[in-house]
Design brief:
The complex is a heterotrimer of chains A (about 280), B (about 280) and C (about 270).
Chain A: H1 2-9, H2 17-39, H3 42-65, E1 69-70, E2 73-74, H4 81-112, H5 118-140, H6 153-187, H7 193-209, H8 211-216, H9 237-272
Antiparallel strand pairs in A: 1-2
Helix pairs in contact in A: 4-5, 5-6, 7-9
Chain B: H1 3-10, H2 14-30, H3 42-53, E1 59-65, H4 71-87, E2 92-96, H5 101-115, E3 124-129, H6 135-144, H7 146-150, E4 174-181, H8 186-197, E5 201-205, H9 210-219, E6 224-227, H10 228-239, H11 244-281
Helix pairs in contact in B: 1-11, 2-11, 4-5, 4-10, 6-8, 10-11
Chain C: H1 8-30, H2 43-55, E1 59-62, H3 70-88, E2 93-97, H4 100-116, E3 128-130, H5 135-148, E4 153-158, H6 164-173, E5 177-182, H7 188-194, E6 197-200, H8 203-212, H9 215-244, H10 252-262
Parallel strand pairs in C: 1-2, 1-4, 2-3, 4-5, 5-6
Helix pairs in contact in C: 1-9, 3-4, 3-8, 5-6, 8-9, 9-10
The chains are: A mainly alpha (about 280), B alpha/beta (about 280), C alpha/beta (about 270).
């Protein structure tokens, strides 16, 4: 049975008839399951969701707790990790259509009703259509000539993606450099002893990270007489900066990480065991 | 003393600051005579040594979580890392978890592969893209069964058909794991994969994320770390090459100097205006 | 570690932590509702909402960039309470999301919050909107909203990355009161530089609990606090054992100390 399921739900090497048959079957199976869920009585829906959530998470817990190998027997759950991973990826992909539909309908309504900044909505829709069309053409017909010109669809895609989108995202990231300069200038005032301490540490770490800073103490030799390590080298600014990062910053980061990761475990447990109450979680489905 | 001057020292128009910053960056990037000494950080030297010590009979796995938005730092780190791997004639596999990562990584790797006569499928392979949504599940599965999890390369060809993948079954066959990232994904590798298989793990991250990973450097879970563009510049210095990463390190120095100056000016103005007000009151 | 058998002490500790947290939650749900101290940054939320209503400008809420995840759900729990305050005062919200699934969940949450406050009419179509999945495209979209809508109060709760300073600095430029809370420690300095109030680290989880007075969330916080005590005890005992090992090199005591130090060694 396991062998049959593995072969049936396993990947197909080539996009042949079997591949398309499995694709159609997959769609039909999902719509059938969704239909059955819709037919289920309302009072059962929360229970069904809680059960599915629990079983989904239980697989990973069972796979973790069961030893990798006990005698001749290997962990029976581990071989199905890649199958479960692929299934998770497919389920995640279902949500893409939701967002796209929501985005397009919102901006189409803005244009039809001539709401404020409807011009931006036209630009968005035009960009969406252009990227979709030329992205698909680049994948399936890269040498297609656009409007019978010398320009191919691959070239247009390159201009739109590498020339336009890539550089725009890099530019947005670069804007942060300017913002940090103005934010630092505006906000960093030494109003207390603690702020002074913070500023001194920040200054040392900054100077220790850059060339002109390390040059300030580069005159302190790394080795003493007879090639022995010079203890005074610990006062080189890059070494003081390293000490601050390893011995002062690290314990603080660890403390915060303990708290954050415990919070992560807590929320994950609450979701897995459906312990959440209130607001979205208590809504009738 | 005119308190107005000190008030103005604290409230310089941000547009003036942006113009000065832009000038500093231009001068540093385009002035060929500006050459500042590079003293590599300890974590960069450790990263370099980790690649030097990587066994030549095992695969190096380079995981990419960066996209065009962080290419200002990650692209030059990637350039230096792949240069080092190819100089050492180490076989490597690449995988990306960002939709644009494959494109930007190939833009770095393919010219270097031509330069170092690296053949796809024999010396290196691209396992393609996997969605970030299944990242923890994917790497957990990858650690136990690489061929069964990866299945095909970026062009949909079975990975078993490539000579480089012969004998590669699981993470025991990976000699070094490198992650080039602009987001916080290293903990997943450490928790789910690196700890169990004791694979050396080196990280190349943006400078902003580096302080978070010092505890892992301290505990030995990370064998080395490249921090931002400075890490890339340091690494280029260790490799005795000089590309944009080295020039950008010089620009970084000047920008840091400007920011320190601005903060000093702001604080000086703050204290002098308080002093002037107190004097006026008395 | 891949399996519990890689390190049974770590696996046992993980199960103990899980049992403590679940015990805290069940205890709060069925037995006694615990109380936690007020997080200082929360005072700012009411101030910010009130100020935005006086100025007649909307309130912006950004649930982070991580998509549908535990941190985002926690942020939405906080936003649910903020939305109730906003609705009671008769103001509007704008909630851009980076993930279509989050948009659906957020829309339901906001609809419930406005309905509970008796003002379902104030929530319009498009107030909760999906912008894009790309980080910096989302950042520029939010920056555009901040400037065009002249937002008076901005709440940034969730997981943020490099774009956090873009939100915070543009918010400052339009004169918005900004309250931020994130689990990403490397973004906290940027928020501190540019925002009015910042909730740091696991105060983020405590904030949701405090605002909502929800037994599940409060019990979870108590469970987490007990877990921190357990971890602290392990750290202290580990340090003591490591220190004593400097003096005992052989014998049963040394063997036990060696074993104790190796129980939770990193990389296992």
């Amino acid at each position: 049975m396991g062998h049959f399921l593995h072969n049936f739900f396993g990947p197909v090497a080539h996009r042949n008839g079997v591949y398309y048959e499995k694709l159609v079957f997959g769609f039909l199976l999902v719509f059938a399951l969704l239909g059955i869920l819709q037919l289920a009585p309302r009072r059962w829906r929360k229970t069904i969701i809680a059960l599915v959530t629990f079983v989904g998470g239980l697989y990973y817990l069972a796979e973790f707790l069961y030893p990798y190998q006990t005698g001749p027997h290997k962990n029976p759950f581990t071989p199905y990790l890649d199958f479960v991973t692929n299934a998770s990826a497919v389920i995640t992909a279902f949500a893409i259509g939701v967002g796209t539909f929501s985005l397009l309908s919102l901006h189409a309504r803005n244009i039809v009703r001539r709401r404020g900044s409807w011009g931006n909505s036209i630009v968005l829709l035009a960009s969406f259509v252009a990227m979709t069309v030329f992205g698909l053409l680049n994948e399936y017909a890269p040498h297609l000539r656009v409007f019978h010109s010398k320009v191919t669809s691959a070239q247009v895609y390159n201009v739109l993606f590498m020339g336009g989108y890539t550089n725009l995202t890099s530019a947005m990231f670069a804007v942060i450099a300017f913002y940090i300069a103005s934010a630092a200038y505006r906000a960093f005032r030494i109003r207390s002893a603690e702020a002074g301490l913070l500023m001194a540490a920040a200054l040392i770490v900054m100077l220790g990270s850059v060339s002109f800073g390390t040059v300030l103490t580069s005159w302190i030799s790394l080795t003493g007489p007879h090639g022995v390590e010079n203890p005074m080298a610990n006062f080189r600014i890059e070494n003081i900066a390293q000490w601050l990062m390893m011995q002062v910053n690290s314990p603080a980061q660890r403390g915060i990480l303990f708290g954050l990761n415990l919070g992560w475990i807590a929320v994950s447990l609450r979701l897995w065991l459906s312990l959440e109450r209130g607001s979205y979680f208590d809504t009738e489905i | 003393m005119n308190p107005g001057i000190w008030q103005r020292a604290q409230t310089i128009d941000r547009r003036v600051i942006y113009v000065i910053l832009l000038l500093f960056i231009f001068v540093a990037l385009f002035d060929k005579h500006l050459k500042l000494p590079i003293i590599p950080a300890k974590q960069t030297i450790d990263f370099y040594n980790a690649v030097q010590a990587a066994p030549s009979d095992k695969l190096v796995l380079v995981s990419g979580q960066w996209s065009p938005s962080t290419r200002g730092e990650n692209q030059w780190q990637a350039q230096a890392i792949f240069t080092h791997l190819m100089r050492r004639r180490l076989k490597f596999a690449m995988i990306g978890f960002d939709p644009q990562n494959d494109q930007v990584t190939r833009a770095v790797v393919e010219p270097l592969a031509k330069q170092y006569h690296y053949v796809y499928g024999v010396d290196y392979i691209d396992w393609g893209f996997r969605p970030y949504g299944v990242f923890p599940q994917f790497i957990k599965s990858l650690a136990n069964d690489i061929p069964g999890t990866v299945i095909k390369d970026r062009d949909d060809r079975p990975i078993g058909s490539f000579p480089i993948m012969r004998g590669v079954k699981n993470f025991q066959d990976i000699g070094l794991l490198i992650e080039i990232t602009g987001s916080g994904t290293a903990e997943f590798w450490m928790g789910l994969v690196q700890g169990a298989h004791k694979t050396p793990f080196a990280l190349a991250c943006t400078a902003v994320m580096a302080p978070t990973y010092y505890p892992y450097l301290d505990s030995g879970q990370l064998v080395g770390m490249l921090t931002g563009i400075k890490g890339a510049g340091d690494y280029e210095g260790l490799l005795d090459t000089s590309t944009f990463g080295t020039r950008a390190t010089g620009a970084l120095s000047l920008v840091y100097a400007l920011i320190i100056l601005l903060i000093a000016l702001g604080n000086f103005g703050y204290y002098m205006s308080k002093f002037a007000e107190r004097k006026k009151a008395t | 570690m891949q399996h519990a058998s890689d390190s049974w002490p770590v696996a046992a500790l993980t199960l103990l932590i899980c049992a403590t947290i679940v015990g805290g939650v069940l205890s709060a749900q069925h037995w006694r509702l615990p109380s936690i101290r007020r997080i200082a940054g929360l005072n700012a939320i009411d101030e910010a909402v009130g100020r935005a209503t006086e100025m007649g400008r909307p309130v912006l809420m950004v649930p982070g960039l991580i998509g549908f995840d535990v941190v985002t759900l926690q942020a939405l729990a906080i936003f649910s309470e903020i939305a109730r305050s906003v609705a009671r005062l008769g103001n509007k919200i704008i909630l851009p999301t980076i993930d279509p699934v989050v948009q659906g969940v957020a829309e339901e949450t906001m609809r419930d919050a406005f309905a509970e406050a008796g003002r379902p009419d104030l929530l319009e179509e498009g107030d909760v909107r999906y912008l894009t999945t790309q980080q910096f495209a989302f950042a520029s979209g939010v920056a555009g909203i901040l400037v065009r809508e002249k937002v008076a109060a901005s709440f940034l709760f969730g997981a943020f990355y490099a774009e956090s300073l873009i939100f915070a600095e543009v918010g400052h430029q339009v004169g918005a009161v900004q309250v931020a809370g994130t689990t990403e420690t490397h973004q906290i300095p940027f928020f501190i530089a540019a925002c009015d109030y910042v909730i740091i680290g696991d105060e983020f989880y405590a904030a949701a609990s405090y605002i909502s007075k929800n037994p599940t969330l409060l019990g979870s916080i108590i469970g987490q606090d007990y877990c921190k005590v357990i971890l602290l005890a392990i750290v202290v005992l580990g340090c003591l054992a490591q220190t004593l090992l400097q003096h005992w090199h052989a014998g049963l005591v040394a063997h036990l100390l060696q074993h104790a130090v190796g129980l939770f060694r990193a990389g296992h």
